[in-house]
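User: Assemble these into one structure.

Assistant: Restating your components, then the assembled model:
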Amino acid sequence: MTQEPADALIIGAGASGGVVGKRLSEAGFRVVYLEQGEWMDRADYPGNKLDWELKARKDWATSPNIRGLSQDYPIVEDDTPVSPLMYNAVGGSTIIFAGAWPRALPSDFRVRSLDGIADDWPIDYFELMPYFYRTDRDFGVSGLPGDPAYPPDTEDAPMPPLPIGSAGMKVARGMTKLGWHWWPEFNSINSVAYDGRRACVQRSTCQSGCNEGAKASTDLTHWPKAIARGATLITGARVRKIETDAKGLATGATWIDREGHEHFQPARVVVVAANAIGTPRLLLLSASPTHPDGLANSSGLVGKRLMMHPFANVAGLFEDPLMSWQGQFGDLIESLEFYETDEKRGFVRGARWGLAPTGGPINTALPSRAGEQIWGPDHHEHVKTHLGHGANWGLFAEDLPDEANHITLSSTVTDSDGIPAPEVHYTMADNARRMLDFHIERAKESMEAAGAYKIDVDRLMRYSGWHLLGTARMGDDPQSSVVDRWNRAHDVPNLYVVDGSCFVTSTGVNPTSTIVSIALRAADHMIETRFEQQVPA
Amino acid sequence: MSAAIGDPLASLDTTEVATLRAVADRLIPAAGDMPSAADVLSDARLRFVLNARPDLLGPLRAALRPELGDDVAARLETLGRHEPATLYPLQLVIVGGYYTDTQVRDLIGYPGQMALELRSWEYPAYLEEGLIDAVLARGPVWRDPSTGTRAVVADAPQTYAERYAAGEAASSAAPSGEGGQ
């Protein structure tokens, strides 16, 4: 059957795919999306049910290897201390992300110039500011304006801040004693009804899907609007290969449906938005005579420079009941006090701290992330003194790019359609280890200043690879980058990569705000240059 | 998604259930006003856990196999040393059944994850206490890429009241009807 080519074929219906798809649809592009997952039903989310903590550890685990759902693909992770996390559905990982919405900082785009290491980006913070504002409005962001950790804004967050809770207040007072920066966190979670979605109810189950629809996920914020503009979203569609013609232009994608039948979707432009594991996997799978080392890979950097933000946790325990099982799981407060480089510390760059709720009784009763387990007669006292009495600083260390941290295609493991799985090869750098060690000590001081009587530390959490970045980096030089400053592949002029793969360095903050702002900027450019766009005959 | 598999308890024989309750009593014994997990883990509670997590049934049966003997402490020691991937599901079944019990939740003062009304109109306590003013008084924290040093912002607000007034002025000066992208 001959099909009319899509003006734009978007592979992956998550955060960045949602942004690009909505924008292109608004501009009149005929957009087709292929998503291997399905639409979610909020009524099925477990957060408001008794078995939430049980299901959060399996069907709602953040690791696809633990979930093992039919729409997931396996990830070979024997050669990494950090497991990549993601979700495959309409909405992608926004279904299970926490919703924390910090932006990258100005220094993040000038790492080489400022610190003599890694690379500068071809774009900067100030160029992205209008896109930050637009994505803040589209996703719906709550926050207190005026954070002095960022340049002054010309536009405030569209909603007032979410509460910081008793735990946030306690730690904020400690930070104030120390004279350290803290600020109520910006979250893409409604503090009031917004854009047809309800306000947050502080249930704290954000990572198991938001029952209220208060947390932004693109199945709510973007896809319905794109579809209303005529976009076609095909679910249960696992892309096997991006096809190319003799000139090396992308012509569309071959995909497999849930019954195992193969299809081809032709397109004038192909946009890959499958995260920094899925995107390089697909580009490597798309090798052809004109692209023998994988699509868009003449630089050899597809799949290289994987960054995942090594993560440590510092948990303070307090005498006072804090009811800290409640509150947005996107953070309560954050600190960027030690974010910028100070070489006296023995490392370059820095880390962001985010203070999060602490979970329910099953989480409290089971062995802790730091390995502590209390059974026998003392178990009850342990639960009573820990449940609702804690506050957790999560420490996100900036991960510098290293070509040794990379993705390959497995020769032995495949997904359910027989497509090779990605293999992750990743080692935590010494710089990041020293960074986390420093930040752990400062975070412990913060908890002491706040009055914690006990502090537990998890020095590197395995299931913390939420932030997948860098495997198809942006740059001006085709020999040292995969995509240009507009996210267009140097080698394939009608192929775009718009997810976190394009990151040049990792920054030290949760990346979704920055990812989607870069994606929106890329979409604007596609629209502006639509009449110059090279397309297959 | 995990599917219910009929009655999961039918897969456990009486010896396995007895062993499970013995382990439960060892991990979470009665103390003070708290009941033991053995007393709480009724068939209904076990059924609830295994219906939510049918994947636990296999490792649970492995953890309860008779070959590990009658000594509960020795069984836990063996599993912890040689089969942590079997021990964890055993612990999860017991903890999951115990802490989803209504009486236990009442005793520990945990009402479940509640839906709370946000009071976004209330002035936050951190502003009331001046905690934000203390942060603002220290000035900008970000590093200016053009100088490589901490940014200097002319007329940076020193208090939240100043910042709020500046934000209000900017809003009233902005063109109306701006509608995003």
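Residues 430-450 of chain A form the longest helix (21 residues).
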